[in-house]
Amino acid sequence: MSVSLAKGQSVSLQKSTGESLTVVRMGLGWRAATRRGLFGTRARQVDLDASALLYAERTPSDVVFFRHLESNDGSVRHTGDNLTGSTSSGDDEAIVVDLLHVPAQITQIVFTVSSYTGQTFAEVQDAHCRLVDESSGLELARYELAAGGRHTGQIMAKVFREESGGWAMQAIGAPARARTFQDMLPAIEPFL
Questions:
Q1: What is the C-alpha separation between 148 and 30, in angstroms, rounded?
Q2: Distance, first Cα to last Cα, the chain
Q3: What is the tens place of the pLDDT at every residue in 21-45?
Q4: What does pTM read for this prediction?
């Protein structure tokens, strides 16, 4: 059963049996907003990019994005770049995290989305990020990204180690002005 998260809410990544999840997928989906024009409606393609930033406490350690598809240790993997979004309700980009193999010094993984082409979120609709149990295919949590606005990036969510040693996910949903994950580094700081 999926949990719909509001900004700032967290959910534990424990299975209902009490076991910890082993592999999760953070999916990003979107489509270009249709605009009315003189000759009808049209949608201009929007290239959003999902990234995962691995942190050891508050220190960046590694990043996974469309030009570096796998973390140096192999525990986090990007499935590939989508340049246009889609008209379906599925994931257009995904990042798979093998929680069992994330190095012990990594305490949190922050997921971001940025508009590589510089278009604002006013040109995006039906954007979401969702966390899926990769072994069962079940959606665990979903966060609908705020559409509209003049921002070109968003800090979507993070997964982090709980004091118990398990993992949890927190929806962040903070807008940023960014075309790449590097542009978002200062905006991520308050959420670490």
A1: 13
A2: 28
A3: 889 999 988 777 666 656 655 556 7
A4: 0.85
